Protein backbone atom coordinates (compact mmCIF):
# COMPACT_ATOMS: atom_id res chain seq x y z
CA UNK A 1 0.00 0.00 0.00
CA UNK A 2 1.40 3.40 -0.95
CA UNK A 3 1.98 5.81 1.89
CA UNK A 4 0.40 9.26 1.87
CA UNK A 5 3.06 11.97 1.89
CA UNK A 6 2.60 15.27 3.73
CA UNK A 7 5.52 16.82 1.88
CA UNK A 8 4.97 19.53 -0.70
CA UNK A 9 4.78 18.37 -4.27
CA UNK A 10 8.27 18.33 -5.79
CA UNK A 11 9.28 19.76 -9.12
CA UNK A 12 11.37 17.65 -11.53
CA UNK A 13 14.51 19.35 -10.22
CA UNK A 14 13.79 18.12 -6.71
CA UNK A 15 12.81 21.47 -5.21
CA UNK A 16 9.38 21.62 -3.53
CA UNK A 17 6.73 23.61 -5.39
CA UNK A 18 5.73 26.71 -3.42
CA UNK A 19 2.03 27.44 -3.02
CA UNK A 20 0.86 30.53 -4.90
CA UNK A 21 0.88 33.83 -3.05
CA UNK A 22 -2.20 35.99 -2.63
CA UNK A 23 -1.45 38.16 -5.66
CA UNK A 24 -0.96 35.13 -7.89
CA UNK A 25 -4.10 33.53 -6.51
CA UNK A 26 -6.06 36.75 -7.03
CA UNK A 27 -4.90 36.89 -10.64
CA UNK A 28 -6.18 33.35 -11.05
CA UNK A 29 -9.57 34.29 -9.63
CA UNK A 30 -9.82 37.31 -11.94
CA UNK A 31 -8.89 35.15 -14.92
CA UNK A 32 -11.52 32.58 -13.97
CA UNK A 33 -14.19 35.29 -13.62
CA UNK A 34 -13.26 36.76 -17.01
CA UNK A 35 -13.74 33.32 -18.51
CA UNK A 36 -17.25 33.08 -17.09
CA UNK A 37 -18.54 36.24 -18.72
CA UNK A 38 -20.85 35.68 -21.61
CA UNK A 39 -21.44 32.02 -20.81
CA UNK A 40 -24.92 30.61 -20.29
CA UNK A 41 -26.56 27.32 -19.40
CA UNK A 42 -24.47 24.15 -19.29
CA UNK A 43 -21.37 25.91 -20.57
CA UNK A 44 -21.50 28.30 -17.62
CA UNK A 45 -22.06 25.49 -15.13
CA UNK A 46 -19.13 23.53 -16.51
CA UNK A 47 -16.84 26.57 -16.37
CA UNK A 48 -17.87 27.41 -12.79
CA UNK A 49 -17.33 23.82 -11.64
CA UNK A 50 -13.90 23.66 -13.28
CA UNK A 51 -12.77 26.95 -11.76
CA UNK A 52 -14.21 26.05 -8.35
CA UNK A 53 -12.48 22.67 -8.38
CA UNK A 54 -9.11 24.26 -9.10
CA UNK A 55 -9.51 26.92 -6.41
CA UNK A 56 -10.86 24.54 -3.76
CA UNK A 57 -7.89 22.23 -4.31
CA UNK A 58 -5.31 25.03 -4.45
CA UNK A 59 -2.13 24.26 -2.50
CA UNK A 60 -2.46 27.75 -1.02
CA UNK A 61 -5.12 26.32 1.31
CA UNK A 62 -8.64 27.43 2.26
CA UNK A 63 -7.46 30.34 4.39
CA UNK A 64 -5.71 31.99 1.44
CA UNK A 65 -8.55 31.17 -0.95
CA UNK A 66 -11.13 32.75 1.35
CA UNK A 67 -8.99 35.82 1.87
CA UNK A 68 -8.45 36.26 -1.87
CA UNK A 69 -12.13 35.76 -2.72
CA UNK A 70 -12.98 38.65 -0.42
CA UNK A 71 -10.30 40.77 -2.14
CA UNK A 72 -11.80 39.90 -5.52
CA UNK A 73 -15.25 40.79 -4.20
CA UNK A 74 -14.02 44.16 -2.96
CA UNK A 75 -12.60 44.94 -6.40
CA UNK A 76 -15.79 43.91 -8.18
CA UNK A 77 -18.02 45.88 -5.84
CA UNK A 78 -15.90 49.01 -5.99
CA UNK A 79 -16.17 48.92 -9.78
CA UNK A 80 -19.94 48.52 -9.37
CA UNK A 81 -20.11 51.54 -7.03
CA UNK A 82 -18.08 53.60 -9.51
CA UNK A 83 -20.53 52.49 -12.21
CA UNK A 84 -23.45 53.96 -10.26
CA UNK A 85 -24.66 50.91 -8.31
CA UNK A 86 -25.42 50.88 -4.58
CA UNK A 87 -25.55 47.99 -2.06
CA UNK A 88 -29.34 47.58 -2.13
CA UNK A 89 -29.32 47.51 -5.95
CA UNK A 90 -26.71 44.76 -6.16
CA UNK A 91 -28.28 42.60 -3.44
CA UNK A 92 -31.76 43.02 -4.92
CA UNK A 93 -30.47 41.78 -8.27
CA UNK A 94 -28.57 38.92 -6.62
CA UNK A 95 -31.72 37.79 -4.82
CA UNK A 96 -33.60 37.81 -8.10
CA UNK A 97 -30.98 36.14 -10.30
CA UNK A 98 -28.93 33.88 -7.99
CA UNK A 99 -29.43 31.17 -5.40
CA UNK A 100 -30.15 32.08 -1.79
CA UNK A 101 -26.60 31.13 -0.77
CA UNK A 102 -25.09 33.27 -3.54
CA UNK A 103 -27.25 36.20 -2.46
CA UNK A 104 -26.06 35.80 1.13
CA UNK A 105 -22.46 35.69 -0.08
CA UNK A 106 -23.16 38.98 -1.88
CA UNK A 107 -24.33 40.55 1.40
CA UNK A 108 -21.17 39.32 3.15
CA UNK A 109 -19.04 40.70 0.32
CA UNK A 110 -20.75 44.09 0.69
CA UNK A 111 -20.02 44.01 4.43
CA UNK A 112 -16.36 43.15 3.84
CA UNK A 113 -15.95 45.91 1.25
CA UNK A 114 -17.58 48.48 3.53
CA UNK A 115 -14.72 48.06 6.02
CA UNK A 116 -12.59 50.17 3.72
CA UNK A 117 -14.45 53.36 4.64
CA UNK A 118 -14.63 55.37 7.83
CA UNK A 119 -18.24 55.59 9.06
CA UNK A 120 -18.35 59.37 8.69
CA UNK A 121 -17.47 59.08 4.99
CA UNK A 122 -20.60 57.09 4.16
CA UNK A 123 -23.72 58.93 3.10
CA UNK A 124 -26.83 58.60 5.22
CA UNK A 125 -28.66 56.59 2.55
CA UNK A 126 -25.65 54.34 1.97
CA UNK A 127 -25.32 53.62 5.69
CA UNK A 128 -29.06 52.97 5.92
CA UNK A 129 -28.81 50.41 3.12
CA UNK A 130 -26.05 48.55 4.97
CA UNK A 131 -28.22 48.46 8.09
CA UNK A 132 -31.29 47.30 6.19
CA UNK A 133 -29.29 44.51 4.55
CA UNK A 134 -27.76 43.55 7.90
CA UNK A 135 -24.41 43.67 6.09
CA UNK A 136 -21.91 43.02 8.89
CA UNK A 137 -18.64 41.17 9.26
CA UNK A 138 -19.53 38.12 11.37
CA UNK A 139 -16.25 36.25 10.81
CA UNK A 140 -13.25 36.83 13.07
CA UNK A 141 -10.61 36.97 10.35
CA UNK A 142 -10.67 36.75 6.56
CA UNK A 143 -8.62 33.55 6.77
CA UNK A 144 -11.58 31.92 8.53
CA UNK A 145 -14.24 33.22 6.15
CA UNK A 146 -14.33 30.37 3.61
CA UNK A 147 -14.77 27.57 6.13
CA UNK A 148 -17.05 29.74 8.26
CA UNK A 149 -19.35 30.46 5.33
CA UNK A 150 -19.31 26.78 4.31
CA UNK A 151 -20.31 25.74 7.82
CA UNK A 152 -23.06 28.32 8.07
CA UNK A 153 -24.53 27.39 4.68
CA UNK A 154 -23.86 23.65 5.09
CA UNK A 155 -21.85 23.52 1.89
CA UNK A 156 -18.67 21.69 0.94
CA UNK A 157 -15.58 23.75 0.24
CA UNK A 158 -16.03 23.17 -3.48
CA UNK A 159 -19.67 24.28 -3.30
CA UNK A 160 -18.69 27.37 -1.32
CA UNK A 161 -16.11 28.43 -3.91
CA UNK A 162 -18.63 27.81 -6.70
CA UNK A 163 -21.14 29.94 -4.78
CA UNK A 164 -18.59 32.75 -4.48
CA UNK A 165 -17.75 32.63 -8.19
CA UNK A 166 -21.43 32.83 -9.11
CA UNK A 167 -21.91 35.91 -6.94
CA UNK A 168 -18.71 37.58 -8.19
CA UNK A 169 -19.66 36.92 -11.80
CA UNK A 170 -22.86 38.91 -11.30
CA UNK A 171 -21.26 41.78 -9.37
CA UNK A 172 -18.32 42.02 -11.76
CA UNK A 173 -20.47 42.07 -14.89
CA UNK A 174 -22.83 44.91 -13.99
CA UNK A 175 -23.13 47.68 -16.60
CA UNK A 176 -22.63 51.34 -15.82
CA UNK A 177 -25.80 53.16 -14.78
CA UNK A 178 -26.54 56.69 -13.65
CA UNK A 179 -25.07 57.61 -10.28
CA UNK A 180 -27.53 58.32 -7.48
CA UNK A 181 -25.40 59.97 -4.83
CA UNK A 182 -21.72 60.24 -3.89
CA UNK A 183 -19.39 57.27 -3.66
CA UNK A 184 -18.61 55.74 -0.27
CA UNK A 185 -15.47 57.14 1.28
CA UNK A 186 -15.77 60.44 -0.58
CA UNK A 187 -16.67 62.42 2.54
CA UNK A 188 -20.06 64.01 3.04
CA UNK A 189 -21.36 67.32 4.24
CA UNK A 190 -23.98 67.49 7.00
CA UNK A 191 -26.57 68.06 4.26
CA UNK A 192 -26.34 64.38 3.44
CA UNK A 193 -28.15 63.60 6.69
CA UNK A 194 -31.94 63.17 6.58
CA UNK A 195 -33.37 66.41 5.20
CA UNK A 196 -36.59 66.55 7.18
CA UNK A 197 -36.46 67.47 10.90
CA UNK A 198 -36.89 64.46 13.21
CA UNK A 199 -40.15 65.79 14.67
CA UNK A 200 -41.61 66.31 11.20
CA UNK A 201 -40.61 62.80 10.11
CA UNK A 202 -42.03 61.35 13.32
CA UNK A 203 -45.41 63.03 12.73
CA UNK A 204 -45.57 61.89 9.12
CA UNK A 205 -44.55 58.34 10.00
CA UNK A 206 -47.15 58.20 12.77
CA UNK A 207 -49.91 59.40 10.46
CA UNK A 208 -48.99 56.92 7.75
CA UNK A 209 -48.68 54.06 10.24
CA UNK A 210 -52.24 54.75 11.41
CA UNK A 211 -53.37 54.92 7.80
CA UNK A 212 -51.89 51.49 7.13
CA UNK A 213 -53.41 49.86 10.20
CA UNK A 214 -56.94 51.20 10.34
CA UNK A 215 -59.86 49.22 8.94
CA UNK A 216 -61.91 52.36 8.25
CA UNK A 217 -61.51 53.82 4.76
CA UNK A 218 -62.50 57.37 5.66
CA UNK A 219 -60.01 57.49 8.52
CA UNK A 220 -57.27 56.16 6.26
CA UNK A 221 -58.03 58.83 3.68
CA UNK A 222 -57.90 61.62 6.24
CA UNK A 223 -54.62 60.44 7.77
CA UNK A 224 -52.79 60.07 4.46
CA UNK A 225 -54.05 63.42 3.23
CA UNK A 226 -52.76 65.09 6.38
CA UNK A 227 -49.36 63.45 5.85
CA UNK A 228 -49.24 64.83 2.30
CA UNK A 229 -50.10 68.30 3.57
CA UNK A 230 -47.25 68.12 6.07
CA UNK A 231 -44.92 67.01 3.29
CA UNK A 232 -46.01 69.92 1.11
CA UNK A 233 -45.59 72.36 3.99
CA UNK A 234 -42.08 71.09 4.71
CA UNK A 235 -41.14 71.28 1.03
CA UNK A 236 -42.31 74.90 0.88
CA UNK A 237 -40.38 75.82 4.01
CA UNK A 238 -37.20 74.29 2.64
CA UNK A 239 -37.66 76.00 -0.72
CA UNK A 240 -38.08 79.42 0.90
CA UNK A 241 -35.06 78.90 3.14
CA UNK A 242 -32.94 77.95 0.14
CA UNK A 243 -34.23 80.92 -1.87
CA UNK A 244 -33.18 83.37 0.85
CA UNK A 245 -29.88 81.68 1.70
CA UNK A 246 -26.77 83.84 1.36
CA UNK A 247 -24.37 80.95 0.75
CA UNK A 248 -24.27 78.19 -1.86
CA UNK A 249 -27.27 75.86 -1.97
CA UNK A 250 -27.25 72.23 -3.01
CA UNK A 251 -29.04 71.34 -6.22
CA UNK A 252 -31.25 68.32 -6.87
CA UNK A 253 -30.05 64.87 -5.88
CA UNK A 254 -31.31 61.35 -6.47
CA UNK A 255 -32.15 58.17 -4.63
CA UNK A 256 -33.16 54.68 -5.68
CA UNK A 257 -36.28 52.87 -4.49
CA UNK A 258 -36.83 49.18 -5.12
CA UNK A 259 -39.85 48.27 -7.24
CA UNK A 260 -40.29 44.52 -7.15
CA UNK A 261 -42.91 42.11 -8.47
CA UNK A 262 -45.53 41.11 -8.82
CA UNK A 263 -47.10 43.92 -10.85
CA UNK A 264 -43.86 45.91 -11.03
CA UNK A 265 -45.02 48.30 -13.74
CA UNK A 266 -48.13 49.28 -11.78
CA UNK A 267 -46.08 49.82 -8.61
CA UNK A 268 -43.61 51.96 -10.55
CA UNK A 269 -46.58 54.02 -11.74
CA UNK A 270 -47.65 54.57 -8.13
CA UNK A 271 -44.15 55.73 -7.20
CA UNK A 272 -44.15 58.10 -10.16
CA UNK A 273 -47.45 59.55 -8.96
CA UNK A 274 -46.06 60.20 -5.47
CA UNK A 275 -42.86 61.71 -6.91
CA UNK A 276 -44.68 64.03 -9.31
CA UNK A 277 -46.96 65.36 -6.57
CA UNK A 278 -43.89 66.24 -4.50
CA UNK A 279 -41.82 68.07 -7.13
CA UNK A 280 -39.69 65.06 -8.05
CA UNK A 281 -39.27 62.93 -11.15
CA UNK A 282 -39.11 59.14 -11.21
CA UNK A 283 -37.41 56.96 -13.84
CA UNK A 284 -38.12 53.23 -13.70
CA UNK A 285 -35.37 50.74 -14.62
CA UNK A 286 -37.45 47.65 -15.29
CA UNK A 287 -34.45 45.37 -15.87
CA UNK A 288 -33.08 46.04 -12.40
CA UNK A 289 -36.24 46.36 -10.26
CA UNK A 290 -35.74 49.92 -9.08
CA UNK A 291 -36.77 53.48 -9.85
CA UNK A 292 -34.47 56.46 -9.55
CA UNK A 293 -36.20 59.46 -7.99
CA UNK A 294 -34.66 62.86 -8.76
CA UNK A 295 -35.44 65.80 -6.49
CA UNK A 296 -34.25 68.00 -3.66
CA UNK A 297 -33.23 66.30 -0.43
CA UNK A 298 -36.17 67.82 1.42
CA UNK A 299 -38.53 65.85 -0.83
CA UNK A 300 -36.76 62.57 -1.56
CA UNK A 301 -37.10 60.93 1.84
CA UNK A 302 -40.72 62.01 2.13
CA UNK A 303 -41.52 60.54 -1.28
CA UNK A 304 -40.17 57.18 -0.12
CA UNK A 305 -42.23 57.36 3.08
CA UNK A 306 -45.47 58.14 1.25
CA UNK A 307 -44.88 55.56 -1.48
CA UNK A 308 -44.13 52.82 1.03
CA UNK A 309 -47.29 53.60 2.98
CA UNK A 310 -49.55 53.82 -0.07
CA UNK A 311 -48.12 50.57 -1.39
CA UNK A 312 -49.04 48.86 1.88
CA UNK A 313 -52.52 50.36 1.75
CA UNK A 314 -52.96 49.40 -1.91
CA UNK A 315 -51.74 45.83 -1.35
CA UNK A 316 -54.11 45.35 1.59
CA UNK A 317 -57.07 46.79 -0.30
CA UNK A 318 -56.19 44.76 -3.40
CA UNK A 319 -56.10 41.53 -1.38
CA UNK A 320 -59.55 42.23 0.09
CA UNK A 321 -60.96 43.14 -3.32
CA UNK A 322 -59.27 40.11 -4.89
CA UNK A 323 -60.83 37.78 -2.34
CA UNK A 324 -64.23 39.20 -3.17
CA UNK A 325 -63.45 38.93 -6.88
CA UNK A 326 -62.50 35.27 -6.43
CA UNK A 327 -65.60 34.56 -4.34
CA UNK A 328 -67.74 35.67 -7.24
CA UNK A 329 -66.22 32.99 -9.46
CA UNK A 330 -63.81 35.12 -11.50
CA UNK A 331 -60.54 33.50 -10.41
CA UNK A 332 -59.38 32.96 -13.99
CA UNK A 333 -58.80 36.70 -14.35
CA UNK A 334 -57.28 37.34 -10.95
CA UNK A 335 -53.97 38.62 -12.37
CA UNK A 336 -55.70 41.02 -14.78
CA UNK A 337 -57.96 42.12 -11.95
CA UNK A 338 -55.04 42.95 -9.64
CA UNK A 339 -52.96 44.62 -12.33
CA UNK A 340 -55.93 46.80 -13.31
CA UNK A 341 -56.63 47.52 -9.65
CA UNK A 342 -53.12 48.89 -9.06
CA UNK A 343 -53.03 50.92 -12.28
CA UNK A 344 -56.34 52.59 -11.43
CA UNK A 345 -55.20 53.10 -7.84
CA UNK A 346 -52.02 54.85 -9.01
CA UNK A 347 -53.89 57.07 -11.46
CA UNK A 348 -56.43 58.21 -8.88
CA UNK A 349 -53.77 58.68 -6.18
CA UNK A 350 -51.85 60.94 -8.58
CA UNK A 351 -54.84 63.25 -8.80
CA UNK A 352 -55.53 63.22 -5.06
CA UNK A 353 -51.94 63.85 -4.00
CA UNK A 354 -51.54 66.66 -6.49
CA UNK A 355 -54.74 68.34 -5.30
CA UNK A 356 -53.70 68.03 -1.63
CA UNK A 357 -50.20 69.38 -2.27
CA UNK A 358 -51.25 72.27 -4.49
CA UNK A 359 -54.01 73.31 -2.09
CA UNK A 360 -51.38 73.67 0.64
CA UNK A 361 -49.04 75.58 -1.68
CA UNK A 362 -51.81 77.97 -2.73
CA UNK A 363 -51.85 79.37 0.80
CA UNK A 364 -48.33 80.77 0.25
CA UNK A 365 -48.17 82.65 -3.05
CA UNK A 366 -44.58 83.75 -2.34
CA UNK A 367 -43.34 80.18 -2.70
CA UNK A 368 -44.91 79.39 -6.08
CA UNK A 369 -42.13 80.93 -8.27
CA UNK A 370 -39.51 79.23 -6.08
CA UNK A 371 -41.18 75.85 -6.46
CA UNK A 372 -41.47 76.37 -10.22
CA UNK A 373 -37.74 77.09 -10.45
CA UNK A 374 -36.94 73.99 -8.40
CA UNK A 375 -39.09 71.84 -10.68
CA UNK A 376 -37.14 73.15 -13.67
CA UNK A 377 -33.87 72.26 -11.91
CA UNK A 378 -35.17 68.78 -11.17
CA UNK A 379 -36.19 68.30 -14.79
CA UNK A 380 -32.78 69.39 -16.06
CA UNK A 381 -31.01 67.06 -13.62
CA UNK A 382 -33.19 64.12 -14.63
CA UNK A 383 -32.51 64.88 -18.30
CA UNK A 384 -28.74 64.82 -17.70
CA UNK A 385 -28.96 61.55 -15.77
CA UNK A 386 -31.35 59.85 -18.20
CA UNK A 387 -31.08 61.40 -21.66
CA UNK A 388 -32.77 58.46 -23.43
CA UNK A 389 -35.85 57.52 -21.41
CA UNK A 390 -38.84 55.81 -23.01
CA UNK A 391 -42.48 56.41 -22.11
CA UNK A 392 -44.34 53.34 -20.91
CA UNK A 393 -48.13 53.17 -21.24
CA UNK A 394 -50.13 50.80 -19.07
CA UNK A 395 -53.67 49.63 -19.74
CA UNK A 396 -56.04 47.94 -17.35
CA UNK A 397 -57.78 44.88 -18.76
CA UNK A 398 -60.34 44.22 -16.06
CA UNK A 399 -63.15 46.74 -15.63
CA UNK A 400 -64.07 45.44 -12.18
CA UNK A 401 -60.47 45.63 -11.04
CA UNK A 402 -60.21 49.19 -12.36
CA UNK A 403 -63.36 50.29 -10.55
CA UNK A 404 -62.28 48.68 -7.29
CA UNK A 405 -58.84 50.27 -7.59
CA UNK A 406 -60.34 53.73 -7.96
CA UNK A 407 -62.56 53.09 -4.95
CA UNK A 408 -59.54 52.04 -2.87
CA UNK A 409 -57.60 55.12 -3.98
CA UNK A 410 -60.48 57.36 -2.99
CA UNK A 411 -60.44 55.68 0.41
CA UNK A 412 -56.65 55.77 0.85
CA UNK A 413 -55.37 57.87 3.73
CA UNK A 414 -53.33 60.79 2.54
CA UNK A 415 -53.37 62.89 5.70
Automatic annotation (TrEMBL):
Region (Disordered): 1-24
Signal peptide: none
Ranges for domain DUF7168: 267-381
InterPro entries on file: DUF2786 (IPR024498), DUF7168 (IPR055592)
Pfam families on file: DUF2786, DUF7168
Biased composition (Basic and acidic residues): 1-14
All residue ranges annotated as the DUF2786 domain in the record: 199-237
Name recorded for this polypeptide: DUF2786 domain-containing protein
Organism this protein belongs to: Streptomyces blastmyceticus
